[in-house]
Structures are given as structure tokens and as C-alpha cells.
Amino acid sequence: MLNVAELLDCVKKEERASLTEAESKILLSAYGIPVVEEAIVTEEDDAASQAQKIGFPVVLKGHGARLTHKTERGLVKVNLRSDFEVIQAYRQIKEAAGEDWEGCLIQPLIEGKREFAAGLVRDPQFGPTVMFGLGGVFTEALGDATFRIAPFSETQAEVMLDEIKSSKLLGAFRGEEKADRDALKQTLLGLARLGLEHPEIKEVDINPLIVTPDGKVKAVDALVVLDENADAPIGPALSEEEQEQWIQETRQALHRAFNAESVAVVGATKPNISGFAGMFGCMHLFGFKGRLYPINPKLDEIYGHKAYPNLTALPEKVDLVIVSVPAQVVPGVLRECVATGNKTIHIFTAGFKESGEEEGVRLQKEMKQIAVEGGLRVIGPNCMGFYVPNRRMLTWQKASKKSGPIALISQSGGNAQEITHYATGRYGIGFNKVVSYGNALTVESADFLDYLAGDDETEIITMYLEGLKNGRRFLKLAEETNKKKPILIYKGGLSETGAQAVSSHTGALAGGPKIWHSFFRQTGCVLVESVEELAEVAMAFHYLPETKGPRTAVLGYGGGAGVSVADNCAKLNLALPDFSEDLLGKLREIIPPAGTIIRNPIDAMIAYFDFDVMGKIFKLMAESDEIDNVLMSIPLDWLFNKEEGGGYIETLTRYVAEEGVRHLGCKPFIATWRQYMPSGKIRSWAPVMEKILLDAGIPVYEGMARGINAMAKVTAYYDFHAKNK
Amino acid sequence: MLNVAELLDCVKKEERASLTEAESKILLSAYGIPVVEEAIVTEEDDAASQAQKIGFPVVLKGHGARLTHKTERGLVKVNLRSDFEVIQAYRQIKEAAGEDWEGCLIQPLIEGKREFAAGLVRDPQFGPTVMFGLGGVFTEALGDATFRIAPFSETQAEVMLDEIKSSKLLGAFRGEEKADRDALKQTLLGLARLGLEHPEIKEVDINPLIVTPDGKVKAVDALVVLDENADAPIGPALSEEEQEQWIQETRQALHRAFNAESVAVVGATKPNISGFAGMFGCMHLFGFKGRLYPINPKLDEIYGHKAYPNLTALPEKVDLVIVSVPAQVVPGVLRECVATGNKTIHIFTAGFKESGEEEGVRLQKEMKQIAVEGGLRVIGPNCMGFYVPNRRMLTWQKASKKSGPIALISQSGGNAQEITHYATGRYGIGFNKVVSYGNALTVESADFLDYLAGDDETEIITMYLEGLKNGRRFLKLAEETNKKKPILIYKGGLSETGAQAVSSHTGALAGGPKIWHSFFRQTGCVLVESVEELAEVAMAFHYLPETKGPRTAVLGYGGGAGVSVADNCAKLNLALPDFSEDLLGKLREIIPPAGTIIRNPIDAMIAYFDFDVMGKIFKLMAESDEIDNVLMSIPLDWLFNKEEGGGYIETLTRYVAEEGVRHLGCKPFIATWRQYMPSGKIRSWAPVMEKILLDAGIPVYEGMARGINAMAKVTAYYDFHAKNK
């Protein structure tokens, strides 16, 4: 028998685009995929005697390099029960195939109600990607399939089996035994290996992959499609060593940029009419801690800084050049950067590929060439650039000066600003590094992720992402980094329509939503769906200890609001378990008025007005081994009415901050607040209350729904890592 | 052949729980459902000659009143191709069936890859409910099914066909013709009729319902299950006339309550320690416009009102009695109500069925009996009661005195307060009638809906619902009323876990989430998922004209935020179409700076600072026949920076209010605002801006996501009615 390399060589020599069914199965078999035994016969008598050997009933199919769509062409005859039927089928197939006939393929008839499909595709962003789903005639019509990007673990292969809607069919089903899960996992892992080892394989289809009544798995039909260019790199091919060196140098360039001692702004101006201070003004006003050089041949000084006519005139090579000049001038500036050895550049200017205009696309191509040849690391164009509070670096209007353990990588400048403003202004959590990088000329998402993975200041990485240039590198980095530092991603364009808007926005090719969802399932990265959610969930990761499980106790909700808590928990897979009789008994002792609802959620208004009760509830929850997490509600309206002026809100909050931490410090504990009387007076207590809780390290949210969401996302993160070690 | 009545009588006489397969098909056939032709044979030779008549291949099945699970018992033999095979199968079946054998059923083999299932179940809330879904062996495993409550229209039957995930199989599929949709619709409508006409039929299963290669539809297997008590009424059976009279009197009682001239409060007290004014205090403080009688034997007067010892002592029969006394005393009060002829009662007191405690359940039962026998209309117990601003009626702490065209029916008192506070306080929209009715002793959701349907003041009906007592009546009312007055329902307990919390909260049985989703699809009622959303969507219905379609233009978003707009529109089926070249050309003429994104969403910052541009954009959108709706964003931060103090926000808003209405009055137009710098100064402009827009009749939301959601819900409502006339 041929080995795999010989087989593929032979197909390539014949310049065929695909393997025959028989060849496909030989190839798959070499990768540990269970295929049906079969033989090629080129004589009638041979067919009959093979059939005898195999045992009736058998299946006969046409065989030949040019035979596709066999069913439609009448080249498949199933359930043949005798020599006579075999020979008759043989003749019919031979005639129907005509000149394309090279023989017949004979197989036993594999019977089984349960037909699955498995396959390999090459995603434009992520490369070889393995599919598993419901097979047979309904594959496309039902679209019940899941994907994983190769390589992936055995655990992930296992999860794929459970992830499809029809996964019930893999259990014991209507008198048939449960499927051989090992064989299915080996099939998926084999496909992944095949895709990785053979870049010339564009696609593999196994359909049906039958589960027989005794649970065995057999690939009954298979097709392997080749394409020499399927995995060709976009741009010049670099050797592995060259790539490693490029990455190494990018890392160093980013280190210099994030820790810049000297920055030049090409196109520095005084504030424009709309009030925007411009790149230079922003850096100056924020109080950049290093040497700042404005470059503008028409001015002598800006904000008291001596202006220079060009980069050549500068007294030193700078750590970062910021470019803010009209689009058509940018290539010239880049050439000057190359000439002066200023190799790390942020281009603010827009109007390139993202505009969709011919001239913009041409300019970006020109810039790319200059940058690649000159070894420039270009952040942008079409982006807002940097915000690094410790260095007082900022290329937009306003930001907090407080640093913190969170970093943000954003493909959109608007979102970079909104996320940081919201998170720092509302919740006081600090970012140490923020970068908006727009069209990603030579530095892209994966480069920033790579840098932040090794950055000691950064404990949580947040991102706003649209497309990727090198999905495989990004995936690998994300998988590894997310184990140590939670990665939160707000992914724009996960809907079909949204995906269009993405490609018109940054010119990056967005991956299919299905593949992206698999990315999240596979890496354990946390998917969020809005600017606000990104900040809210980051806050939870920042403050909460590791969650041990999904069982959550909720304090402070009854009636319709309690129903809504239950609905929200159920939607997000956060368990709201019934308390045991034992725990209920203890609660009954603590909470006096008969008739108060002490189920979960606990509706004990009394606790908010009697700290003894509240403290005992905290203690019970902390000690109970049937509760993993605690969520509580602070009802501003009730509390406000207790004392003239509403000062009781602060009293209660201080108690929760102190005793909550004392008792519940060991368990993930989130506070939420609600106010349904739209009174400005009541509302004015919210920031006071939030500050007290945040200072105590308790994440706090407006509305239980946000708190449940944050708790659910943190719980899912730790659960993923517990299961994918 | 037997007719249907005779057939069912015969089965009942034999005390059988189900019909045989053959009987089932006779019954279904009488209801226009296409069934396979078949015959019962009790002799071998007969079997063979019938097979000849039918034509090979045939199917043979066991026949008998006690034969179930035929496949598992080996009583089904398919694909019999000769006399010999038929006779062999006949003998095997006869032997396997043993004493249960009454004959064999012989059918032609119906071949077809496409197997569906249809059926009838009797939902505990909604009664006969028809199912359509994917059939064959995968029915349960894939769970691809949809439901409609009988009766439903042909249009709805049509929608069912398209609603299942596997609906693609109904089109031309792999060389097979498209399915006979008429036959499928007749099947579903026939099942509905069967369920309505025969309350003793508990369940019907047709599986498989095969679509043959030529598109024909055949019910190949069928089962009809009977249950004499399936549709028995809960509580005493009333004649139709009695029911009509009860409903009529309830309507009158509610009219008196909502327009009360005189109200007595049993258990009137001075304010309690927590600061709650109590039922009487609330009515008094809100300034009830009629005669208000406190009843408390221990007091002489309350708030200057003379107190009475009991109802008997009152100088008149009152329009409404409010009861706020300890639970165990309530039955006595109800007896006094009966004795004094005070027949409309709101019971505030809790601690009955909802408590889950034995004594509470017993008390409620006792109260129910008193109420039914005495003809009392009881709102509650365990509820907050009424809020009617025009009558200055209020049984909770605080509320707006402004009336409006919206009514609210809420099963939760907390939600009733939150919804009205939020809607009136934030958006200034008025409610004319609000009622919270808790455990619904003798007046329930359907009664309030019935009243509001005929109430001239009410244009939009909103609800917070958990369970229903009489789902069928509610459905019918909702279907009819929603055509004239949009009905918005916040349904608690749509998740499994949530459903548990519901039943523990009000003691009402919640319907399965699947059936509830069908309820919304069938009636066109608008489903919302939170207190805030209910108010927000109600506001959109209040202000917007009828929408003509989903094509929406969005003004004011680019970059990452634009991507998020596209994602949100896609999720909610609101179209964000590309503009035509013609429209783009016109926009290019209006919006000066080259490079500005004029696609949809339009990212034209200039328009916010140049009213000439803004006005022209409004005009273009108003005139364009490729745009149905317009959404705009008001970016507070940009506008705030334009002038010291932020006054430009007001200038711009006034322009939008005037010109927006002038140009866009004809088209649904929603404004949204965003603020990402968490500055209190900027935020303080939000209420000013909201008020200007609301006064001009433009609904306004914080954040584009809420605006998109409201627009999408309104659009879906009018679209439903256009399609279901």
C-alpha cells in the first residue's frame, strides 16, 4: 500500500484537484480515522467474489479520478443481496460512468440510523479548522455543526461531541448502543493533524460517518480536496527564523513605545476650531513625562516647545514618532523615518484602505512596502494610538491619570476611549496600557497580545477586535495567555450584517461567526458584547477571587424581581440552587417575621434594617458548602426613606463593605443596586455607595442583571480552566 | 365505514385509552389529513393478495387494541418485496404479538427522505395545541418543533412550516420536489379542529409524516390517545350563559373600581415604623377624589377622616373595599362584604397560597369559596392594587399625577411600581390605569384585559405576567385586542429555572416556555424582557406612527460604534440597508469633507455643527423611498465641548426637535444619546435634552441599543398585522 506522501505526490503529479473516494479513505485511515473496509474491482467476477468475501448485503460505487456527484449520476448501488444483484449493479455503474469509469468500489453495507459528518476546512483567518455535526442528507438543511481550530486538545474534541444539538444521538438510542466516543475523538484529532501536516489539503468531507447499532464508528464516504495555494502566506514568505526575529523586534519596539522617553509629533498643530487639541496638544496637556518634539516647518514653537522642521532636524532618534499629516503626505514621512532610523511609528491620519476609495487603498499599499522594507513598526494608520497613564502618554482628549492592572487593545479609537472613560470614570479601575491600532499596517492584534502576555504590569487583557491578520498566531497566543491572564474580547461583527460593516471599516477580513464562537469555546477567552459589558466584566475579574462553581445565593429579591433573577441566572448558566432543609432551618432562625421568603433569592427586607440579621446571613453564606458565590441587592429607595436625607444608604453600605469583606472575603461576592423611583436625590447616593464598595474591593453594578452577567462570565472562565488543564 | 362519533363511542365503550393505528388514521382522515391507504388482514392469503393489489414493496404491522411500541416488539416489517416475504412477515408478527394479535395492517411502502411529525397536545393553560416539527427517529433528539394554540389561521399554519429549523427540507431538496404545503397546512388545521371538537382527545401523534419524492404528504403512522378528563374545567362548571353573566358582572365591577366614587379601607392605620403610610394613608395622601372611609374599631379618626368600626357601620355601599388586615382575619372580612353587599374588593394582605405554607393555602381556599358563593370580585390577595391618576387613586407610596393612554396589568406589585415609576419619572409618559392583582382569587389577567380592551382611555396595554388561570380566554382576548391596541407583555418565568420561581411566587401554573413563545408568534403581542424594556417599548408605541417596513437609516455612528449598530440591527431583524448610488450621490453633495463615511450608519460629525447639513440630511431621509425608519444619535460629549457650559447640547436638541418633526414627522423617528465621558456636568444635560425631544413627541433612549430594540419591536408589530389580516 502507498504511504501518505507517495499518495499525495501521485495525485499532484496527475494534477488532480481531489483524491478518489478510495484514496481519500486510505489517507484518512493513516490518520487514525476508522473507515469502512473496501476493495476496488475491475472485473465482474471479482466483484461477485469480493462480495462473497465481505458478506451480503454490499454496496457498489463507481471508482475513478473524475467521478464526483456519484449519487446524482447513478453510480451508487446499495443493499445488494446476491451475486446476481452485484453483477447487475456493476454493469449499470460501468455504463453510467462511461469514459470516467476506472473500476468499482465494493464495501459492506454499513447500517445505522445515526449519521454524522466530520470534515476539515481552511478558514482564511485561522487556517485548518475541524467540523463535527449531524450528517446524512440533512447536513446542510439542519446546519447542526461545531468547529475547532487545529490543533486542539482531546478535551476539546470531547466537548465538540457534546456541543452539537443532536449530541443525544451519541448516547444509547432507540435500542442502539452508545457511540464509541474514542473513535469519534480520534477522527476529529486525526483531521486536525492532517490539516496541520498537509497544507496542500484544502478540504476534507466525511459524510456519512455512521454510528452502527453496536456503537462502532465508520467513515462510509469521504472526499479530500487539494489546493497548493490553500495555505500560502499573505505577503512575502519569511523563514521561521526571520519570523521569530521580526516578532522579537516588534516586541522591543512596543516596549520602547509603551515606555517612551522621547516622542516626536509630525504635523503638530495648535488646537483646531472644533476644540480638539490634536496629537501634540493631547500629549502635552496630559503631561508627557519624557522629551516631546513638535514637528511643523511653519511654526517656531507650540505650547512652549521648540518646533522642528522635520525628523532629520531632531537632536535624537525618538522612541515613538506620531504622524498626524494629510494622507497623501504620509508615505513621505515614512521614508524619512526609515532614513533617520526612527522605526516605531503611530499614524493617526485616516483615509486609507478603510475609506474604500482607490487612492486610499493605493497609499496604504505604498506605505506597507516602505514599512516592510524599512523594518518600520507602524501602529495604525487610522487610529487613536496610545494611553499610558504612568508615562503620561495620551493621544486623545482626556483620560484618568490612575494606572491599574488592566490593558486594552482596540481596533477602534472610539471604543478605546469609551471603554477607558467608562471603566475609569464609573468604576475607578485603572488601565496601564491602552492602544488603538486601526488598520494595523505592520503591527497587529497578535503583536500587542504577545507583548502584554509578557508584561508584568498587566493582569487582565481586554480587547475590542474586528478582524485579524494572522488568526493562527493570535489563537495560540490567546490560548496560552488566557490561562494566566483573563482575556476579555468585545468582538465586533459577529452578526452577518455586522461582519459587512467590519470589512468596510478596517479592511480586515472578518472570520465567520461560527468559527469565532468556536474560538471562544476553544480558548476560554471571555466574549462580551458591548463597551459597557467589557468594563463591567473586567471589574469583576479584577476584584473577585477564583470562583469554585456556579451555585449562587442571591440576597434581597422577592416577587416579580425574584422571578427575573431566576430567569437571568438560567439564561447565563449560573445556578440558583434551592437551599437544603438544613440551611433553610438556619435561615428561619435568623430571619424573624413568619412568611418572609427565605428561599433563593432571599427576600428579607428586615436584614437591611437590622445589621445583626444581615451579619448572620453573611456568615451563614460564607460557611455554607452549598453556596459558591453570593450576590446581593442594595435597594436604594427603601434605604433612602429610612432617614431624612437618605444617609442610611451610606450607613448600610459601610456595613456591607466591612462585614461583607470580613465574612465573604473567601467567596466571590458582588453587590448590585437598584432604584426605581427616578429621584435625583436618591440617585445622588449611588456614586457614594459605589465608591465605598469599590474601595473595599467589592464589584458593584447598577441592576442585578449586570451583576449576574459578570458573575456568570467569571464563573465560566474558571470552569473552563478547571476542565481544560 | 364508521363515522367519527361512532368510532370514538366504540373506543370509549371498550374503555380503551387509545385508538389503534388503523382507527387513528380513519379519524385523522375525516379531518382532512392525508393518510396512507391501508387494510387490515386476518388471513395469510389475504395479506398476500392485498399486497399484490397495493403493489410491492409493502409494509406489514401488527394490529390490535393492546399493541403499542410496535417497532420495539418486532411488529413492523418493512420493504417486503414478494408474497413469500409478506407471508413470512405475517407469521412472525402474529407470533410476536401473541394474545394481543387482532390482525395485520398492510400498507404500501412510502419512501421519502423527508420525515416530519405533527401532533396535538393539551396544554394545561392553553388547551389544544398543535405541533409541527422534524420527524422520524430524530424527533426527540433534535427537538425541532413549533407550536400553535388552536384555533389558528391558515396564515399561522403557513408560518409554522417556515418556523422550524429544518424548513429547508420543505423546498425542492436533493432531486425531490418541494412539499405540498397545502396538504401540510390542512394537516395542522385539521389537528386544531379535531382538538377543539373533541375535548376527550388528549393527544395525537403523527410520526412520520412523510414527504415523498414527488412532494406528496402522507401520515404513515399515527396514534390518538383519549382522556375523558383532559379538558375538564378547574372549579365548578358553569353554563355558557352563566359564564357570560359572570364576565359581564366582572366588567361592571372593574368599571366601578377603576372609577370609584367611594372607597373603604378595612384595617386603616396610621403610618407604621418603616415609614410606609399604609393603604389608607396612600389613598389619602394622593388625594383620592371620592369619599374615603377608614375602618378600624380602635380609632376615631385617621388623617382627619372619621373612622368606622366595620363595613356595616358605613353610610353607603362602596365601589371598592380595600382589605389590609392580618391573613387569618380576611375570611371574616369577606363574609362581612357579602353580608353588606360590598362586592368589589382589593386584598393587600399576603401570606396565602403564595407562601407555600399549609395554613395560607387553606385560608385562600376558604376565601375562594366565600367569594364565589357571594359573587365577590376579589383583586388579590397578596397585591398592591390600584393606581388611577385621574381619580387620584393609589395604594402605594408615590406616583405621578399625570394620566396618559397606557394601562398596566401586573401580577407583581413590585414590578407595577417599578414600571410606572420608571416610565413616568424618566420619560413622562402617563398611565391611566394600573393594577397589581397577585394571587388572582376571582379576578385574573383575562378579566383586566377584557376590561381594558373596551376602555376608551387605553390605547396601549402593558402587562407583567407570570401564569394564567384561563389561557384560552386570555389568548382569544389578546389576539383580538392586539389588533387595535398594542399589547406588550413582560413574561416572568420563560426560563426553566425561572418557571420554578413563578410557581412558588403566585401559585399559578406557568406554561412551558415553548408554548409561550408560540403564544407571542400567534397573537403578535410584543414580548419584552425587563421592567425597563417594557417602559421603553411602550414609549415607542406611544409616539411613533405606524412603521412601513424594517429599512432603517442611522445617523451619527462610525467606527467601532457603527459596527455595534450593525450587529444590534442584525440581531433584531431591523434592516440597515446599503444606500443606493443615487442616495449616496445626494449625500455626497450635502456632506462636504471628503473621506467622511456616508454609508449606513452615516458618520457625519459636521452635521451636528452645521444645521444646514443636518436639515438637508433629514429632508433626504424623509423623501427617500428606500428608508422606512430613522434613528439618530446625539453625542453629548462632542456637543458639550462646543460651548462653555455645554449649552450647545440644548441648541442642537431644539433643532432636532423642530426640524426632525417637521421633516420626519411622516416617518418613525427615534433619537438616542450617548455619553462616554462619565462627567456629571455632561450628564446633567441629559434630562434637559430628553424633555425637549419627548415634548416634541420624539422617543429618546440612552444608547443606540435601546433605540434599535424599540424600533425593531414596533416594526415587528406592524409587520405581524400586515401579514395576519
TrEMBL record, chains A, B:
Source species, domain of life: Bacteria
Signal peptide start-end: none
Record-level Gene Ontology MF annotations: ATP binding; ligase activity; metal ion binding
Key words of the record: ATP-binding, Ligase, Nucleotide-binding
Domain ATP-grasp, residue spans: 25-231
InterPro entries reported for this sequence: Acyl-CoA_Synth/Transferase, ATP-grasp, ATP_grasp_subdomain_1, CoA-bd, NAD(P)-bd_dom_sf, Succ_CoA_lig_flav_dom, Succinyl-CoA_synth-like
Record-given protein name: CoA-binding domain protein
Organism: Desulfatibacillum aliphaticivorans
Lineage, opening ranks: Bacteria, Pseudomonadati, Thermodesulfobacteriota, Desulfobacteria, Desulfobacterales
